């Protein structure tokens, strides 16, 4: 029996799968933050290259992966699918558990899958420089690497508290040639305004987004890049699910259940959408998006128009949201602390094509340790949410006595998250479930913004 299923490089998919071609209900358009009217390509052209804007609204089913991007992917793709045999044994389950391992990329997660094409299209359209924000540093490091590959400069506004708490992600960005500043910084008007009022500000993702967008909007040679949420990002990540499908075919399997963690939704969309194409066509399968109980966007948020950032600079997107003013608690899965959700993932959730589950951080770390102690790999705390759900489904299969095939996405390794593992092992981590009043308060702020017809 084959425990690791590999694809040859020549078997790597050559197109992205665009689920917009198959959605039962099309997406509602993004709205201009000022006027509330649907935005057009021109509104985005100041900060995004035209090719990505086209992908954002395209209804073409397959979009070709440029040769140069395929070449760059071959640095670490195809990634393996691995059967978690030792975990199955530990759980004494009749289920087969497979995981797609995206931690083999140089940055240690799935994020280079979109950083690479984004850098490529920007380079091709004559840009010299990209600006972005990063929280825990996973996106900033992926974009720094991608920019280096295509000869672009990269400026990363890193949330100040992470800048000091996650020094090694910062080092990775610098190794790959990225310029990192703690946000709020003196480099932008947005940063200077915050610092004038709050000289000791620890920063937030919202402030960092404002700084990066301002940087990109002001400079002709610079564009902005986002690592999750947007349609083109999920499109790029579908290389994960397409590869996984081919890999399971090689061992004559098709998943009954597909699982991914969700922050902005990109790695989940990436693994699930190529299978949802079959589900829309009539095939039976379940897809489960897993989020933290402390940031329960799908399970407790509302589907409505909201801003992508606290500063209300981004377009209004139709998505599940806890409200742009929502301040997620400082849980250790930093990449899952986002108030909103990808409009595509929101749409398929609304249409009943996927399910959502929320877990608390202690049970998630417990699952992470079981996985690390059986399969060896130390998962990113984000990815451990998917592991927790996979374990629960494998336990259910045991009770039911059914031989289910489970596939989950291991979106990244946890080598830069060892302080949170220490905190867990030292008994210093606590569960936090979001009080309903706090969600209601953040959502109440949205009442003046347009509602969706559904
Ligand atoms: C960023 C990140 C996530 C969350 O982002 P999505 O867009 O929801 O995928 C999950 N896992 C890892 C390892 C990450 O770096």
In brief, what are we looking at here?
The protein has 454 residues and is α/β, with parallel strands linked by helices. The termini are far apart.
Description:
This protein is of the alpha/beta class and 454 residues long. It has a domain at 66-108 and 232-446: Rossmann fold (3-Layer(aba) Sandwich), CATH 3.40.50.1100. The protein has helices at 41-44, 50-57, 67-73, 85-91, 112-124, 138-150, 160-165, 167-175, 189-197, 205-218, 231-250, 266-280, 297-300, 343-350, 361-375, 381-400, 418-425, 436-444, and strands spanning 4-5, 15-17, 62-64, 81-83, 96-101, 129-134, 153-159, 179-183, 222-224, 257-261, 286-292, 302-307, 316-321, 355-359, 405-410. Strands 1-4-5-15-10-11-14 form a 7-stranded mixed beta sheet, with helices on both faces. It has a 4-stranded parallel beta sheet with strand order 8-7-6-9, sandwiched between helices. Helix 12 (266-280) links the parallel strand 10 and strand 11. The model has no long low-confidence stretch (mean pLDDT 94). Bound molecules: pyridoxal-5'-phosphate. Pyridoxal-5'-phosphate (PLP) binds next to helix 12 and helix 16.
């Amino acid at each position: 029996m084959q425990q690791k299923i590999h694809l040859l490089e020549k078997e790597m998919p050559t197109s992205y799968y665009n689920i917009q071609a198959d959605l039962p209900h099309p997406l509602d358009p993004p709205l201009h933050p000022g006027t509330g009217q649907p935005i057009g390509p021109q509104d985005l052209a100041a900060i995004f290259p035209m090719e990505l804007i086209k992908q954002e609204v395209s209804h073409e089913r397959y979009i070709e992966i440029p040769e140069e991007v395929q070449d760059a992917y071959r640095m670490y793709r195809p990634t393996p699918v691995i059967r978690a045999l030792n975990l199955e044994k530990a759980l004494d389950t009749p289920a087969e558990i497979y995981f797609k391992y995206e931690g083999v990329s140089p940055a240690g997660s799935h994020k280079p899958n979109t950083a690479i094409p984004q850098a490529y299209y920007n380079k091709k359209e004559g840009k010299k420089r990209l600006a972005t924000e990063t929280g825990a540093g996973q996106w900033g490091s992926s974009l720094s690497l991608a920019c280096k590959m295509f000869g672009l400069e990269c400026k990363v506004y890193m949330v100040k508290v992470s800048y000091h708490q996650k020094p090694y992600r910062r080092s990775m960005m610098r190794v790959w040639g990225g310029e990192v500043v703690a946000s709020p910084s003196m480099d932008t008007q947005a940063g200077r305004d915050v610092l004038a009022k709050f000289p000791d500000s620890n920063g937030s993702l919202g402030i960092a987004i404002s700084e990066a967008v301002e940087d990109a909007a002001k400079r002709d040679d610079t564009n902005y890049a986002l690592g999750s949420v947007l349609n083109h990002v999920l499109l790029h990540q579908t290389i994960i699910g397409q590869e996984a499908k081919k890999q399971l075919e090689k061992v004559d399997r098709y998943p009954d259940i597909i699982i991914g963690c969700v922050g902005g939704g990109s790695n989940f969309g990436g693994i699930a959408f190529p299978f949802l194409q079959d589900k829309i066509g009539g095939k039976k399968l379940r897809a489960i998006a897993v989020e933290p109980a402390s940031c329960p966007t799908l399970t407790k948020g509302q589907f409505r128009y909201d801003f992508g950032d606290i500063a209300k600079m981004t377009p209004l997107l139709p998505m599940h949201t806890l409200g742009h003013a929502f301040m997620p608690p400082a849980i250790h899965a930093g990449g899952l602390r986002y108030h909103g959700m990808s409009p595509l993932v929101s749409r398929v959730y609304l249409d009943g094509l996927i399910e959502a589950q929320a877990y608390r951080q202690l049970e998630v770390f417990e699952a992470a340790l079981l996985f690390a102690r059986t399969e060896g790999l130390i998962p990113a705390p984000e990815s451990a949410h998917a592991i927790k759900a996979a374990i629960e489904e494998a336990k259910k299969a045991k009770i039911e006595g059914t031989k289910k095939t489970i596939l989950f996405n291991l979106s990244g390794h946890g080598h830069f998250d060892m302080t949170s593992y220490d905190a867990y092992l030292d008994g210093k981590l606590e569960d936090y479930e979001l009080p309903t009043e706090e969600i209601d308060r953040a959502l109440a702020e949205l009442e003046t913004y347009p509602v969706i017809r559904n």
